[in-house]
UniProtKB/TrEMBL annotation:
SUPFAM superfamilies on file: Periplasmic binding protein-like II
Family of this protein: Belongs to the bacterial solute-binding protein 5 family.
Gene Ontology biological process: peptide transport
Record-level GO cellular component terms: ATP-binding cassette (ABC) transporter complex; periplasmic space
Keywords (A to Z) from UniProt: Plasmid, Signal, Transport
Gene: dppA9
Pfam families: SBP_bac_5 (PF00496)
Superkingdom of the source species: Archaea
Name the record gives this protein: ABC-type transport system periplasmic substrate-binding protein (Probable substrate dipeptide/oligopeptide)
GO molecular function ontology, one term from the record: peptide transmembrane transporter activity
Amino acid sequence: MFNEDTTSDIDRRRFIKSTAAIGAAGLFAGCVGTDPDETGDGGGTFRIATPDEVETFDPRMNQMVWYSTAAHYLFDSLFMLEPDGSGAVPHLADGELEEVDETTFVVDIRDDVTFHNGDQLTAEDVAYSLNWVRDPDNDSPNLSNVEFIDEAEATGEFEVTLHLDFQFALMERELSSMNAAIVPMDAAEEMGQEEFAQNPIGSGPFELANHDPSASVELTANDDYFLGEPTLGGVEYRIIPEAEVGFVELADGTIHQSSVTEALVDEAESNDNVNTYQISDFNFQGFIINCLEGPFVDTRAREAVQYLVDYDELLTGAVGDLGSRSVAHMPPGVAEAWDFPADEWREQYYPEQDHDRAVELFEEAGLGTDFEVDIVTMSGESTTGRSTVLQHEFQEVGIDASVREVSDGEWLDALDTGDYDINTYGWGGGDDPDGYYYRMFRDLANDDGGMSDDVVGHSSIGYLYEGARDRGDDELLDELERLDELVRAARETTDRDERYEYYVEAVDLLMPLHPVIGVYSAEGITGVHTDVQDYEPSPFGEQEAFNQWQEARIDD
């Protein structure tokens, strides 16, 4: 199903700039699964720094970006995305999807896969896993990513038939993600979701060995993995909130991989023990403005914020040179690959900083400058950095703005309940506009099952829909209804030209409403210790330390 009509040009590029001399053997290391004498603990433990604690090990309920990557070591999916992003290849699937008609596909399942508890993985497990996420009663945050599936049906012991609600251009990509992770039906049902979240059972190349909250997550090699036993004896995630501390431990070999801040790039590149890789992240980073209640209900107040800020200063305050300005709430690379009118959008929707015009708009909205702004942020250099810059801009025009730093859990609660005026926000949407427009800017009330009564909605535009409904703003509701139609239609066709037109119209509807302050798309630098062999990070890689293309080992 993945073909040139539905993949963007960006898929065919490698977004890796390496300062290390890594040859082709590093990325395409040949067959996986090594001789028993060379496996297990002899391959060492790959120790990776992460800034956040894990919220849940259940991929069906996860919302943490770093664990979405780590979960690929514990769980498998039907397909796996290639390291260069050019497409998806069968993984648990025993061959490609067979198209019966536009909304019916059959997939054979490998018969040599076992879960960590020894149970064989069958079609029933696959159907159960997909249907569980698809069931709105389970409140999975991944539901919107698999709602193209109407039902997954086990039509044989190792055969699954996918009945779709609609054609979906990104089906194989979603079936490669942890949004569609396969879990053991019997064990998951017996344990219940709460216990499964702490004691996960998957079929991946590693299994959970130990979890020390706020300290580490330790995984050990799965000797019976269907692709062969990993060379590595284990993978350990060390929870290190401060990037500087992570770099010190990287340089001395305590850990093997860590992010590198802009301030440490020169030191990392000159360190003989560290190889550095600059990787473009396909994500959106910025702020949500609360459109439901508070000072920014009026569109003119939100527009004022666009004149208040200097986008380049926000970017510098967040990540310095390790990012590029977003375009219409997409990474610039996505806009470039799709040949969107990015220059026109920049000129039309991103005004030059003008504090006088900002104050005029605040006055037109009935606010003046005598009001307070509650800016909520997670901890971290990029989030607090851009929040502090924004706070300063408000204060420059006499508006009392405070920055409230909260935990990850409190941040998620604030998004659900609307307890903020402006909130930091980040979204990993991939290299397709769908990842930003459908996932961020649809009307959540039109999803299957709608929204829970106690949840306003994660999506920033969800607050705008809710506010327009509360105020009975029929003119705005007409525009938003069209926006919702566009972002849903764009994912329900495989025709690239049609999708292009849908997104151009969606941008022109969305941007004048100003529900979001778009700041940047990150370009991360990761450092890898030279003790790690046969390994190269990728923005698309999954199970990077052990997959069909490369198999890492630790050479102490």
